Amino acid sequence: MTQVVHTRAELAEARAALKGTVGVVMTMGALHSGHETLLRAARDQVDHVLVTIFVNPLQFGPNEDFDRYPRTLDADLEVCRRAGADLVFAPSVADMYPDGQPRVRLDPGPLGGELEGASRPGFFHGVLTVVLKLLQLTRPDLAFFGEKDYQQLTLVRRMARDLDVPVEVIGVPTVREPDGLALSSRNRYLSEPERAAALSLSAALRAGARAADDGRDAGEVLSAAHAAFGAGAPGAQLDYLVLTDPELEPGPVSGPARLVIAAWVGTTRLIDNAAIHLAPRA
Ligand code: PAF
């Protein structure tokens, strides 16, 4: 049975009744099979799965898609039931922020201003603030985040480490369509030609990974990825394509790395990333 609560008071009562380990999956709704994979990963590792569904206004800029972000609560609850969630917390904005937008927000540090943060000022302040708030409200043992939002996952991990938040953060691999497109709630904005153009992101990552597997160096990996992006269907506008270390620190020249990409397809911003293993330097 999946219990659904909408207020912090109801959540406190329902949470107190959960005995054993608790895993949280935080979402903004519009659930797809990528989220379902997160829920199932949680189901395998804890006694109780708690899902939060909340479109967090703090993480949307003034010209972003807060108003048009898909809100599909009934379908989302169906996914939660199917995946065996025990408790769903779906609060209103007024219940989450009863005094209006919080004046105190978490500072994500320098990484918060790079990559996604460079294009979306304040985004990670909003994400980390709501993630910490939801962690306080749900008090999970484990928290599951998708690797698709790799910078978010990295910052949440760092927040938990730096601020001694008592939770283990688990990254869950990205789920893809058979043609490589990473699942995202924003894919539903894409027209058919835009969807074809969106494949340029995963094509770039695959080309980069292939080049790394062939023993190419970092510069060649990036060139291969750029070439594949450019060869995709027209309509995708690259924002960034960066090879960094797995914690998104500057680098790397060899060993484990992450290739991260963001592009605009029409008015939709898409992101993706892949693990890369660079050969040791000669
Ligand atoms: O990844 C998301 O859906 C959101 O950024 C999150 C973690 C639910 C916070 O609003």
The CATH superfamily title of the largest domain: HUPs
- In terms of quaternary structure, the protein is single chain
Q: Specify the biggest β-sheet.
A: 6 strands, parallel
Q: Give the count of helical stretches.
A: 9
* Radius of gyration (Å): 19 Å
Number of domains: 2
Low-pLDDT residue spans: none
Q: Proportion of β residues? A: 15-25%
In angstroms, what separates the terminal alpha carbons?
A: 58 Å
Helix content: 25-40%
Coarse shape = globular
Bound ligands, named by name, code or SMILES: pantoate
Function: Catalyzes the condensation of pantoate with beta-alanine in an ATP-dependent reaction via a pantoyl-adenylate intermediate.
Catalytic activity: (R)-pantoate + beta-alanine + ATP = (R)-pantothenate + AMP + diphosphate + H(+)
Pathway: Cofactor biosynthesis; (R)-pantothenate biosynthesis; (R)-pantothenate from (R)-pantoate and beta-alanine: step 1/1
GO cellular component, one term: cytosol
Q: What's this entry about, in short?
A:
By secondary structure, the protein is of the alpha/beta class. The protein is 37% helix and 21% strand. The chain has two domains: 3-172, HUPs (Rossmann fold), CATH 3.40.50.620; 185-274, Pantoate--beta-alanine Ligase, Chain: A,domain 2 (2-Layer Sandwich).
